[in-house]
Amino acid sequence: MLFRNGLFTSESVSAGHPDKLCDQISDAILDAFLNGDPDARVACETLAADSTIIVTGEFRTAGEELFREIEAAAPDIVRTVLRDAGYGSSELDIDPDTCRIAVHFNHQSPQIARGVDRADQQLGAGDQGMMFGYATNETDALMPLPVSLAHDLLARGGDLRRRGNSGLRPDAKSQVTVRYRDGKPAGVQSVVLSWQHEPDVTLPQVQDLLLEQVIDEVIPRDMRTADFRLWLNPAGTWSIGGPKGDTGLTGRKIIVDTYGGACPHGGGAFSGKDPSKVDRSAAYAARYIARHVVAAGLAERCTVQLAYAIGHPEPVSVSVDLHGTGRVAESALEAAIPRVFDLSPRGIIEELRLNRPNYRKTATLGHFGRHTDPAEHPWETNPHTDALIAAAGGQLHG
Questions:
Q1: Which of 46, 142, 211, 331 is close enough to 135 for a disulfide, judged by CB 3.0 to 4.6 Å?
Q2: What pTM did the predictor assign?
Q3: Could you tell me if 71 and 199 lie in one domain?
Q4: What is the Rg, in whole angstroms, of the alpha carbon atoms belonging to the chain?
C-alpha cells in the first residue's frame, strides 16, 4: 500500500453479482474449450442484461468440430452457471430456464495466431501490456487484510444462502475499511454489506441476520476500532438484483479479482482468457513471485511488475518494489527473479499448469488468497524460496 497511516478500503462482490456472473460464464466457456484442447486459444466475453445473456468472443482450436461443439453447448453452460449462482426468478434476478441466450462465436485472427504460435516453435505473448503481483505478510494467505475480509464476508453469507431459510438471494456486495498504523493493520474501522433478499423478508430482519451471522462471525468485536461504523443494506429494501437490477459484463471487477486496490493494476481482466494471454498468466506469475519474496522473508511487502510485447516470448521488463521493507536490495531481486523463474509465456504455463480446465473456480472471491485452492492453482504456493534467497545473494539484512 502507498501509505503507512490512515484508512484503506477494499470491496468484493458475490457470485450472484451480474459482473461476476459474466466472469463465471466466460471462464466456464474457457474450461470447456481447454477440456477438449489444452492449447485452445480463447477470449470470451459475456453480457447480462435483464432476461438476456449474450456470449461472444474469438476462439481457435485444433479442429473445427470442437469449435462447433462448444458453440452448440454454450446455452447449456450458461444455464448451469446461472443455477449454480442461485438464480431462479425472472421477476427478481433471472430465470435460467426461460432467459434468452445469444451466442456469437468468431475465429481468432490468423495475424494474432502467427504472433503467438511462432514459426520458431516459441510461444509469444498473446498481447502487450503490464501486469502486477502483490504479497504482504499482514494475513496468513499473504494478502491485504481489507480485501481478504471483504471476500470472507461474502463467503460466509453465501454459505448461509446455500443452506436455505436465510431469506438471502444471490446478489451481494461488501466493503471493508481498515485503519493502518506504521504500515500495519490496527483494526477494522467500517464495513458496508448489502445483500439481495426475498421480498417477504423485512429490512430489519435482513440487517439482524447479516449482523449476527455474517459480520460478528467474520469480524469479531476485538478486531474493530473504537470508532467502528457499520452499514447493512444502507439503500434499504433490496429484492431485485442480478441482471434484472443491473447490467453485467465480463472483466469489470478487476480490483475485486486482485488485491482490492492495494497495488497498481495493469488494466487487463482475467476471466474468459486462455493462458497465452499474459494479462492473465503473467499476473498469476507476478503474484507467484511476490508470494515467494514475502514467504522467503526477503520483505514484508512486495509488488512485482512484468511487461510484455505481443508476439515476443520474454518480458520487456521485470521490476520490484519492496515498499521500504526489504532485507535485500530490490536490484538484487530484479536480477535474481529471471534466474529462478521462467517468465516466458510457455514457461509460466508449464510451471503453473495453466492449460488445465479449472478457471471457473477463480471467478469468484478473487483469483488470489485463501479462497483459491493451492492444490489446483499453484500461483498460491511458493516452492522456490530457497532458490530465490540464494539467487538474491543468500545474505539477508535488517
A1: 142
A2: 0.95
A3: no
A4: 22
